[in-house]
Amino acid sequence: MGKGGNQGEGATERGAPMPTFSWEEIQKHNLRTDKWLVIDRKVYNITKWSSRHPGGQRVIGHYAGEDATDAFLAFHRDLDFVRKFMKPLLIGELAPEEPSQDHGKNSQITEDFRALRKAAEDMNLFKSNHLFFLVLLAHIIVMESIAWFIIFYFGNGWIPTVITAFVLATSQAQAGWLQHDYGHLSVYKKSTWNHFVHKFIIGHLKGASANWWNHRHFQHHAKPNIFH
Q: Which region is the signal sequence (predicted)?
């Protein structure tokens, strides 16, 4: 059970002893109306704040009652900025005798994943080539323009239609993967620029909703990657 202190959202006070909690206590708080999670052995009450979470409350809610350290590192590029919002939510920490991972997780898989991430970081695989993405976007726009010109100039006969379909299929497939990278905020350091280009590609070139894609696709990565 938790020891000491108020268990309300952001209950810790500066200078006061940090309350400690067991995994048994933390795992009780995995309800829609009561959500705690753990990051780097610190316990956070996200019950009220989850509705304001920029990534959506369902994504962060998947980790209620669990350790969310690896997901936190994977989904946030500017960790120092994000941690500013976490301070009011801090309510305590894991008891010293508790393991860093909750009892349902496979520690070996977690260690392997962290080793893989470290190897990718050492190889600079997370550093994007801005020129590559700019050229890719430009060639997609050129192909879309060519498809429009073929129909405009040659009409809608069988041959122009087949050629246009081939050009559009190629450009749309490329646009699908390009919006995927921007949607994951993996191109620029500033989220604003990633969101801007993502909305242009998926909204204007593919005719879909960027907000819908983020809501569904972020969960596609978040929930399956809970290591048990």
A: none
The pLDDT tens digits of the residues spanning 102-140 come to 777 777 888 888 899 899 999 999 899 999 999 999 999
Residue 109: CB atoms within 10 A of its CB come to 12
User: How far apart (Å, rounded) are the C-alpha atoms in residues 211 and 107?
Assistant: 34
Q: Long-range contacts made by residues 209-216, C-beta under 8 angstroms, separation at least 24? A: 210/179, 210/183, 213/179, 213/183, 214/55, 214/56, 214/183, 215/56, 215/58
Identity at 28, one-letter amino acid code: K
Burial (CB count within 10 angstroms: exposed 0-12, middle 13-18, buried 19+), residue 214: buried
pLDDT at 14 (0 to 100): 58
Q: Is 71 exposed, middle or buried (0-12, 13-18, 19+ CB in 10 A)?
A: buried
pLDDT of residue 176: 96
The ranges assigned to domains in the chain are 20-122, 130-222
To the question of pTM greater than 0.90 for the whole model, the response is no
CATH class of 20-122: alpha beta
Which phi and psi angles does 20 have, rounded to 5°?
A: -120, 150
